[in-house]
Amino acid sequence: MKKLSVAIFISMLVIHCTTEAQLKENPFTLVYQGAITENTKGKVNIHPVTYKLHGIEIAANVYTPPNYDPKVSHAAVVVAHPNGGVKEQVAGLYAQRLAEKGYITIAADAAYQGASGGTPRNVDKPANRIEDIHGMADFISQYPGVNIAKLGLLGVCGGGGYALKAAQSDKRFKAIATLSMFNSGVVRRNGFMNSQVNTIQERLRQASIARAQEASGGEVLYTANTEITDEMADKMPFDLYREGHYYYHRTHTHPNSTFRYTTSSLLDLMTFDAATNMDLIDQPLLMMAGSKADTKYMTDEAFAKAANAKSKEFFLIEGATHIETYWKPEYVQQAVNKLVDFYQNNLLTSNP
User: Fold this and answer.
1) From first to last of its 352 residues, what are the pLDDT tens digits of the chain?
2) Is residue 205 packed enough to be buried (19+ CB in 10 Å), middle (13-18) or exposed (0-12)?
3) CATH code matching the domain that covers 6-183+226-259+273-348, chosen among 3.40.30.10, 3.60.15.10, 3.30.460.10, 3.40.50.1820
4) CA distances (Å), 269 to each of 119, 184, 215, 261, 278, in order?
5) Could you tell me the sign of the dihedral formed by the alpha carbons of 238, 242, 243, 248, in that order?
6) Residue-wise over 27-41: b if at least 16 C-beta within 10 A, else e?
7) Which SS3 state, helix, strand or coil, does residue 346 take?
8) Handedness of CA 145, 151, 156, 160 (dihedral sign)
9) 296-321: pLDDT as tens digits
10) Are 65 and 102 in contact (CB under 8 A)?
11) How far apart are the first and last CA of the chain?
């Protein structure tokens, strides 16, 4: 490995120290810029909660708006996190920013992931992720002050794909939004930008062997379990993975966040497609993506198929890559402004 320059070494040291300091100073272990460090009267407050979903304990954060009054009716938004992400990262950032605008929001760790329960760890099956979203709706609908007739949904990255599937059948969600949507099943099957089509059958055989090994009580096998160095990341051909490495492992790292998932999960992932049955979405739909995002083709495809949406809009965040929509202030602000306008029009001024 080539030696890092002094400047790069110092830069990475500062990032590492900053992230460590964030975790130590933030009692909620939130790692995004401007995160809540304490609950203050009159401001957005965060409430760590747990609840059961099919016997599994789910860890979530509920954000309440400034001057929250549980006796007053509020619109609410469910936020689904990216693949490999946890509620303390980008999902928490958008949940907090929406709470600042008057919404009660919830971001939960997926079952088998993050601080939520479930074994083996890091099972990543689409049905589970979709059920997680239904479960967040169950919980937040009963939260004091929430008006169930004004429930919105926001999914980020993989959570965006799963949000589309959840909304196809769950009509409690009155307005659906995605940010940098990632179609997990298609990518796990074909590879990013169809880069692994030639190995589909071999990977399915490996997943089948992993499933059999688990069933017999053997070792649980994992995919994407390799520790990536900065040098390895810098050579990656796709912005998504290269920038994702620095986001998840350097600037916004969290101990509960990991890219790994059980190899047996591929049996379910590789037969899943978030863009099927898009005609079942009859709610208002907003899909947002960066103009420079190499994942934009996934939003393009799903958006085109949403033929029966009550209304639909594709909002392009000019100049942004996929990962930059997670943290870069100017792009986050554009997305938040658009979300506030979208929910204002479809939650606050519509429905009883």
Assistant:
1) 334 344 433 444 444 444 566 667 799 999 999 999 999 999 999 999 999 999 999 999 999 999 999 999 999 999 999 999 999 999 999 999 999 999 999 999 999 999 999 999 999 999 999 999 999 999 999 999 999 999 999 999 999 999 999 999 999 999 999 999 999 999 999 999 999 999 999 999 999 999 999 999 999 999 999 999 999 999 999 999 999 999 999 999 999 999 999 999 999 999 999 999 999 999 999 999 999 999 999 999 999 999 999 999 999 999 999 999 999 999 999 999 999 999 999 998 754 4
2) exposed
3) 3.40.50.1820
4) 18, 7, 18, 11, 18
5) positive
6) ebbbbbeebbeeeee
7) helix
8) positive
9) 999 999 999 999 999 999 999 999 99
10) yes
11) 62
What is the per-residue pLDDT across 173-189, written as a single tens digit (0 to 9) for each?
999 999 999 999 999 99
Residue 8, pLDDT score: 38
Read off the tokens for 39: 């609950």
Looking up tokens 């053997």 gives: 218
Instruction: Name the one residue in this structure whose structure tokens are 């500062």.
Output: 14
- Burial class of residue 93 (count of CB atoms within 10 Å of its CB; 0-12, 13-18, 19+): buried
51: its two tokens: 């609840």
- Three-class HEC string of 80-140: ECCCCCCCCCHHHHHHHHHHHCCCEEEEECCCCCCCCCCCCCCCCCHHHHHHHHHHHHHHH
CA distance 16 to 18: 5
Lookup result for tokens 């919980």: 139
Give the residue carrying structure tokens 């949507």. 181
The reported pLDDT for the residue numbered 281 is 98
Secondary structure letter of residue 163 according to DSSP: H
Query: CB of 60 within 8 A of CB of 109?
Result: yes
CA distance 258 to 85: 7
